[in-house]
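Long-time lurker. I teach an intro course on protein structure, and each term I like to show students one example going from raw sequence to a predicted 3D structure in token notation. This year I'd like something fresh instead of my usual example. Would anyone be willing to generate the tokens for the chain below so I can use it in lecture? Attribution to the forum is fine with me.
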Amino acid sequence: MPPSELYLDHAATTPLDPEVADRVAQVQADVFGNPSSPHAPGRRARQLLDEAREQILADLGCSTAQLVFTSGATEANHLAVLGLLPAEPPPDRPLRLATSSRDHESLRLAAAATQHKAEVNSLPLAATGQLDQAAVTDWLRLNPEAGSQPTTTLLLATTLVCGQTGAIEDMTSLRGLLAQWAPQCLLHTDATQAVGRLPIDFYGLGVTSLCFAPHKFGGPRGIGCLVLRPGLDLKPLLHGAQQFQLRGGTEPVSLVAGCQLAVSLAVARQQAEAARLDTLRQRFELQLASCGRYAGIEPVVIAAAGPRSPHISTVAFPGIDRQAFVMAADLTGLAVATGTACASGSSEPAPALTAMGIERRLVQGAVRFSFGRSTTISDIDEAIARISQLLQSSQPAA
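-- Reply from a regular --
Happy to contribute to a lecture. Here you go:
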């Protein structure tokens, strides 16, 4: 009899919330009109679309902001980075863009796509897994201003919760640095791993733009959100009349409805769910340390010295090959990961870990465990039992 499945990869995606599934199915069946059509079915679709957009913005504390629906966070990251930068920068006003290894691959690739017209920098990380504040300061100070007129267009793109380590970025310090050295700098943040785990206040974060995808917190796949500060000059990647002419294509009304409900549920549950997940993570890491020592291995929790999201625990097993461990865990019915889902097929280690200066033997043995609304205490205990057997049967390299 095959082992029962234990899913500890909620940072990759989450099960669809039953309430959200019902909402998507109901809208798909009943509100089928094209929201751009002038007839009654189209008007019903348009009304639902507008109400969903307003509710999402209200839940994120930014009713006056603008919201563009995309196909996911990957497209939203590309739209933010490529759409916020000038298409043809003036010769006397160069473009400078910074990301880091803690960002999702989609954000780093979007930045790389600007290299023909912008100077792209990858900022180093501190040992906590956050951006190195001194490096951010140095980058900002290199950007001169002529009187009150900036001579450089700047975009700093970062990630609120790192999907590789769970480390939470210090947005308060970043805002302070920008205010001191480059008030004109655009600040984009990917909050895909943060919604439902941390309180989200768009204006409180002080960002220019923010994106996320609801499938990370019980919502449907195939839709993402890009929230924009009012008055931004954003250029579309997909041209069309829809969505303020910022993203062409017929809007997926049922997915929008599901996204809106998922956001509302995640925001309403956030405080209680974060406390529950933190308890589960502490239990997991404490038991993991014990079973590791029993197997002659000292597990090391990555980014434990700084603030972390409660749903991610990245743990290094010295001497254990991370990919072999993940495959062996899968054979026991335990689903875990070596890093972000988009890079799970890569033999390369998670880039954030390398950028944090973690020694190679730990990077090579780092495995990400992530928890969600469906994770229970019994799941944690059963996962520990299976991991204990895996570690005892492993032969650590010298």
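Some talking points for your students: The chain has a mean pLDDT of 92. Residues 253-294 form the longest helix (42 residues).
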